[in-house]
Each structure stands twice: as C-alpha cells, then as structure tokens.
Structure to design on (271 residues):
C-alpha cells in the first residue's frame, strides 16, 4: 500500500492512498494544481512527515495523525453473509470509507471481492440501505461477484473473450484468471502508475530473445518460463496502452478464425 503526501499550494497538505479520487474528484483540483511531496509504503513515517510539513508550510495541523485515524487501524468491519456484504456506515458516508480502504479483499460464496477505484463506482450504484438499521448499507454478493466476472476491476473495462474469474459453479470454486493476477501484481508494484509502454516493449523483445535461445537449446523448462514471461509482459503492455490482453486476443482470433491457407516450410501462410 502506497501513501502519498500531496500539497495544494495555499490550501493544505494531506495524505491519501488515491490521488485521483481524493484530490481531483473529491476536492476538485486538476493535476496541475497540486503536487506530490513524497510517497512511502510506511504509514507511520508518512504520518509523521505530514504533520512536520503542515507545520513547516504554516497550514492547520491535523488533530490526529493519519495512522491514528480509525479507518487506518484496521480494514472496515464489514459483515459477510451468504447473500450480502454489509458496510458499517450509511450510504452517504460509504464512498469515503471505501476509498480509504482501497485494496481491501474478502471472500464470499460467489467469489472474491476487492475494493478498487473502479469497483467503488459499482458499489455506489448498487448499494442499498439496510432495512433494519439506516446506519448500515449493503450489496448483494452474487451481483458484486458478477461485476468482477465481466469487468477488469483495475481499468473498469468490460471483459471480452474467454475469461475465468473467482466464482462458484455448481458449488465448486473456480480459478481466477491469470491475467487478473498479473494485473493485480503489476498494479501493487506501481508498474501501471510509473511504467512506460516503450520500456515494456523493449522488455518483450528481451523475453522473446530468451525464449528463442531456450528453443535452440531444446530446454523445455526454459521454454515454458520464457513463454510465460512473454505473456506477463504482453499483459502489462496492453494495460499501459489503454487496452487489455483479452481484447487483443479476441481481435487476433477474429482476424484469423476464417483464414484459409497452407503450411509452408513449417509455418502457416494465408492465401
């Protein structure tokens, strides 16, 4: 989890996990109206630095440091039943709580769920106030799990092609798409925030070279490792190019599925 100290000149210094939502969407400032002073995975360090910088710049100092705020001491105390996930707040306070718990995951009978900037939008569109306590609200687990089946929770794009995500079929847990796991891995390590398509393209050339070397040596283990590495890089390259690997595969398949031709010197040549 990465924490950012941001500075809105003349206004404030604050901490957030999600700059786009907290500063741009919630507070209404454009990307050129604030700057990031520092970032860290250490919440205690970033909390001390926020207080120090607020004093140094002459802004109001927060009553409590960031790491002492309630939502940072633990994940939201949600209640999960077979049918629903209930949140410990009314609807009008839910979005803030969700954004402060980005990355939180939980399991339901219908599949795994995770809070991302994109899945927050789905929750807010589908949440309902509890009939028994108007200070609580809930979503239906099956519908939320289907959201992950049909959408990439990190880009918000609708899935295309044959995707397998965490779900249950006839009572059996089905495996999560490896494409999703790759994207989650990359997102958690900042590759999508700070990565570059050109760098990933060069990385792909490197991995293809390694795979070719393994093929020439007839090294099966290295061949499999090389092909897997190429898929990982292609998955991340697609994301950085504002698309997804599933969509690219679907486009390629639709292009070749009716293609006619013949084998020539070990390769298929179209008519």
């Amino acid at each position: 989890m990465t924490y950012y100290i941001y500075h809105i000149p003349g206004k404030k210094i604050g901490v957030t996990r999600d700059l786009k939502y907290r500063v741009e969407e919630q507070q209404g400032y454009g990307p050129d109206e604030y700057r990031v002073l520092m970032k860290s995975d250490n919440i205690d360090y970033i909390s001390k630095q926020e207080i120090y910088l607020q004093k140094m710049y002459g802004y109001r100092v927060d009553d409590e440091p960031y790491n002492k705020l309630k939502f940072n001491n633990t994940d939201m105390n949600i209640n999960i039943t077979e049918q629903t996930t209930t949140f410990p707040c009314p609807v009008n306070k839910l979005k803030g709580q969700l954004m402060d718990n980005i990355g939180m995951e939980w399991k339901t009978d219908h599949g795994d769920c995770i809070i991302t900037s994109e899945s927050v939008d789905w929750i807010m569109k589908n949440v309902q106030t509890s009939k028994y306590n108007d200070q609580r609200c809930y979503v239906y687990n099956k519908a939320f799990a289907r959201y992950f089946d049909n959408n990439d929770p990190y880009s918000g794009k609708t899935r295309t092609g044959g995707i397998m995500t965490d779900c249950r079929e006839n009572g059996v847990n089905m495996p999560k798409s490896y494409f999703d796991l790759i994207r989650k891995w990359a997102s958690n390590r900042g590759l999508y925030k700070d990565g570059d398509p050109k760098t990933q393209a060069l990385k792909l050339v490197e991995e293809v070279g390694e795979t070719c070397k393994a093929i020439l040596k007839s090294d099966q283990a290295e061949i499999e490792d090389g092909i897997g590495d190429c898929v990982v890089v292609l998955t991340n390259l697609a994301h950085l190019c504002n698309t997804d690997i599933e969509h690219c595969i679907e486009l390629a398949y639709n292009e070749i599925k009716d293609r006619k031709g013949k084998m020539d010197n070990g390769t298929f040549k179209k008519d």
Q: What stands out?
A: The chain is about 45% helix and 20% strand. The chain has a mean pLDDT of 83. The longest strand covers residues 3-8. Residues 76-176 form one domain.
